[in-house]
Amino acid sequence: MPRPVLALLLLALMSGCASRPPLRPAAGGAPAPPPTPWSFAPGEAPSQRLFRVQVRRGAESGGLRLVLRLWSPVRFELAASDPLGRPLWSLIARDERGAWRAAGAQGVCRQDPRRPVEWPRLGLALPAAHLPAILLGRLPEAPGDGTVIPAEAGSFAFTDPVGRRWRATLEAGTLVEWSVAAATGELAWRLEERGARLELAAGQLEIRWREVAREPLRGTAPVLPADLDSSPECSLENLS
């Protein structure tokens, strides 16, 4: 994708924010594996990335673009647009607080990044805090103490603090798949040759994505709106 076109896309996605340098095409080759399947590799934050996403639910399908600006695992920005680059929504998350804005909305609503919500155009209920890890091929939950993790290849399983059972597989030190029981069926993530896939309930919902551009971030992380505490809490009506 030419640099001028990509720069215009980013400006459209995050209009009103301070200007940032355009993304460069993603470098070839996989990054060095992180120390653990649930942590980020050195140099992955701060960074900004553009993803192309395809969603299929039954006979229906659609696409969108996601821009992830990652400052740390708990401080990030996420912005979505349709395939033509028209903004849909954006989110700023800092630790346990988040500010959501729908395209064209006058204000924001409050969102706890740890609380699962159903994401517009994705049709999947996930905590915002899990999205950077999922997009970058990491395990969204860290195993508890005592979990035996294979050094290079093999599978392991653990139960998270809310009682969900997770299973994951490594190949050559790289996370290649994980699954967890969800209220609407098993949620499974798999690494693919070009990108990754998230599948719910054995194919009833399928989301595929690939990274198409990447660049280090400079400057400081954005601050949440000063009036966030007085803003309404996000509901399903806000997230549409």
How would you explain this protein's 3D organization?
7% of the residues lie in helices and 43% in strands. A hairpin with a 6-residue loop joins strand 8 (116-118) and strand 9 (125-127). It has helices at residues 3-13, 131-135; strands at 24-25, 47-57, 60-72, 75-81, 87-94, 97-102, 109-111, 116-118, 125-127, 154-159, 165-171, 174-182, 185-192, 195-200, 205-216. The protein has 240 residues and is mostly beta strands.
Could you name the CATH class?
Answer: Mainly Beta
Radius of gyration over all CA atoms, rounded:
18 Å
| Main sheet overview | 13 strands, antiparallel
- Structural category is mainly beta
Order of helices and strands: HEEEEEEEEEHEEEEEE
How many independent structural domains?
1
Q: What would the keywords be for this entry?
A:
240 residues; mainly beta; outer membrane lipoprotein receptor (LolB), chain A; two-stranded antiparallel sheet; 7% helix; globular; disordered N terminus
Q: In a nutshell, what does this entry contain?
A:
This protein is mainly beta. The protein is built from two helices and 15 strands.
Topology:
Elements: H1 3-13, E1 24-25, E2 47-57, E3 60-72, E4 75-81, E5 87-94, E6 97-102, E7 109-111, E8 116-118, E9 125-127, H2 131-135, E10 154-159, E11 165-171, E12 174-182, E13 185-192, E14 195-200, E15 205-216
Antiparallel strand pairs: 1-15, 2-3, 2-15, 3-4, 4-5, 5-6, 6-7, 8-9, 10-11, 11-12, 12-13, 13-14, 14-15
